[in-house]
């Protein structure tokens, strides 16, 4: 399989106008500046402070419907389960549940979040390579749709637990098709060297073993080859063709295969990528699995939530050093980790209407955390941004807040959702008392000023 074309370092940056044109939830107003739907982002920053995540309800709805429509128009019997790991905010999950989406979860916390948001247990799929006994107990007690098993060892653990509870757990076997998704190495999941699933060559024998386990109700297969896939649909085509062949092989052995979980991973254009469309993905699923007579499932996360969010941040100071211009923000890598972890590119727009049309010069955009990796962009063309200026990081609705931390004892940022002209805080900013809550100093530690 051909390697992805390398990005040219000298490729021109998208202009501010280019970035706006691809993001219909965002616009500029001559007086109010950058808007999300009908709400000025400066108004949110003034009321809530920064850094703050802001999500567009309209974008979430529009993209969820577009994906479901593409599957339906392709004639596929398919359900969509939002990858909760991309954004577990209860308001986001609840809104998508209202659009008919289920949830794909990978932890007890995500399962509980999905249920709290109103996702029915019959719409929840539990994935992940390291499910604990406690998590398995909860999944069985909730009677969720299925658990995706990743190994023979995990199957034996779940079988024993289910039998001890007098129950049967519905499961699918996650198969590793050994397909290169041609994405970042840290988010590739479908190669034999990755920790996920079982090699496809070993799947028939293990599937038969699972079907013989009294504590398991085996319903089908699952796969997931990676995240942020932008190199067309050829990787999907290879994976689904192999899954289709496996379905036929298992049925030839008299084994039941009711459904196939096709995973997620469809990418979005952070910069100038041209990912496949939902229609192209649906067509690829149909080509590989459309005649298999199975119910289909998808687990999108980024494609739905990524373009729906921005991270609002305020400039602390600009400085010049060794001939470089540094724009230092109050947001940091503990808020938006993707640039530090994946070398990810995010569009950055000024919020001020005047700054949007002002002359630009290259700048390194950095945060205040004491790490050189706390860098969002290098040499990015930006207007002058004096202290207190606001900027918005684009496409931050997925793997933004969900990957944030309190490194450097920085509280977690607030989260806001916009719906037309309305907006609401959907997660309060963490306070310093909350940040320190739960920590204890043992009595045998003598603090300064205390008698020994």
Automatic annotation (TrEMBL):
Signal peptide start-end: none
Annotated residues for binding of substrate: 302, 338, 342, 371, 399
Domain of life: Bacteria
Xref: CDD domains: PLPDE_III_DapDC
HAMAP family, per the entry: LysA
Name of this protein: Diaminopimelate decarboxylase
Binding residues annotated for pyridoxal 5'-phosphate, in chain numbering: 265, 299-302, 399
Organism field: Sabulicella glaciei
Ranges of residues in domain Orn/DAP/Arg decarboxylase 2 N-terminal: 60-305
Cofactor: pyridoxal 5'-phosphate
Record-listed E.C. numbers: 4.1.1.20
GO molecular function per UniProt: diaminopimelate decarboxylase activity
Subunit structure comment from the entry: Homodimer.
SUPFAM superfamilies: Alanine racemase C-terminal domain-like, PLP-binding barrel
Family: Belongs to the Orn/Lys/Arg decarboxylase class-II family. LysA subfamily.
Biological or metabolic pathway of the protein: Amino-acid biosynthesis; L-lysine biosynthesis via DAP pathway; L-lysine from DL-2,6-diaminopimelate: step 1/1
Coiled coil segments of this chain: none
Reactions performed catalytically: meso-2,6-diaminopimelate + H(+) = L-lysine + CO2
Alphabetical UniProt keywords: Amino-acid biosynthesis, Decarboxylase, Lyase, Lysine biosynthesis, Pyridoxal phosphate
Role this protein plays: Specifically catalyzes the decarboxylation of meso-diaminopimelate (meso-DAP) to L-lysine.
Record PANTHER family: DIAMINOPIMELATE DECARBOXYLASE, GROUP IV DECARBOXYLASE
Modified residues (N6-(pyridoxal phosphate)lysine): 85
């Amino acid at each position: 399989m051909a390697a992805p074309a390398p990005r040219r370092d000298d490729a021109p940056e998208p202009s501010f106008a280019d970035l706006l044109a691809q993001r219909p939830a965002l616009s500029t107003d001559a007086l109010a500046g950058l808007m999300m739907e009908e709400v000025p982002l400066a108004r949110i920053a003034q009321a809530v402070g920064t850094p703050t995540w802001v999500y567009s309800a309209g974008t979430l709805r529009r993209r969820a419907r577009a994906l479901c429509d593409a599957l339906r128009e392709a004639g596929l019997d398919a359900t969509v389960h939002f990858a909760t790991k991309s954004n577990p905010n209860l308001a986001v999950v609840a809104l998508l549940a209202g659009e008919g989406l289920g949830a794909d979860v990978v932890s007890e916390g995500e399962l509980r979040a999905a249920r709290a948001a109103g996702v029915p247990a019959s719409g929840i799929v539990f994935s992940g390579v390291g499910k604990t006994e406690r998590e398995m107990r909860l999944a069985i007690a909730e009677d969720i749709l299925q658990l995706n098993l990743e190994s023979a060892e995990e199957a034996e653990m779940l079988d024993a637990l289910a039998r001890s509870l007098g129950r049967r757990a519905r499961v699918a076997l996650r198969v590793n098709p050994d397909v290169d998704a041609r994405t970042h190495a840290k988010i590739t999941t479908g190669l034999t060297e990755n920790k996920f699933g079982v090699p496809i060559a070993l799947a028939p024998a293990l599937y038969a073993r699972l079907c013989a386990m009294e504590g398991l109700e085996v319903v089908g297969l699952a796969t997931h080859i990676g995240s942020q896939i932008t190199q067309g649909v050829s990787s999907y085509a290879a994976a689904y063709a192999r899954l289709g062949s496996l379905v036929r092989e298992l049925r030839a052995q008299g084994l039941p295969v009711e459904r196939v979980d096709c995973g997620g991973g469809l990418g979005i254009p952070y910069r100038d990528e041209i990912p496949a469309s939902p229609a192209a993905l649906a067509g690829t699923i149909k080509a590989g699995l459309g005649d298999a007579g199975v119910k289909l499932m998808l687990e999108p996360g980024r494609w739905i939530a990524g373009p729906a969010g921005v991270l609002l941040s305020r400039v602390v100071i600009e400085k010049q050093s060794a001939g470089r211009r540094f724009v230092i923000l109050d947001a940091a890598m503990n808020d938006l980790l993707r640039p530090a972890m994946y070398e990810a590119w995010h569009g950055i727009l000024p919020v001020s209407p005047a700054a949007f049309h002002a002359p630009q010069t290259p700048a390194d955009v950095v945060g205040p955390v004491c790490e050189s990796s706390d860098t969002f962009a290098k040499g990015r063309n930006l207007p002058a941004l004096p202290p207190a200026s606001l900027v918005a990081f684009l496409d931050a609705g997925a793997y933004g807040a969900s990957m944030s931390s309190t490194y450097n004892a920085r509280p977690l940022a607030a989260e806001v959702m916009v719906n037309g002209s309305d907006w609401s805080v959907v997660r309060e900013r963490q306070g310093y008392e909350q940040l320190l809550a739960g920590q204890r100093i043992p009595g045998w530690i003598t603090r300064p000023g205390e008698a020994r």
